[in-house]
Amino acid sequence: MNQFSGNKDFLEGMCAACALTAAAEGGIDDKEYEKTLTVIRSNSAIAAGFDSTQIESVFGKMQGKTTTRSGKAELKNEIREVIARDKTGSLGQAIVLASLDVADEGGISPAEVAVMKDIASICNVNYDKLAA
Question: Domain containing 10 — which CATH number?
Answer without folding.
Answer: 1.10.3680
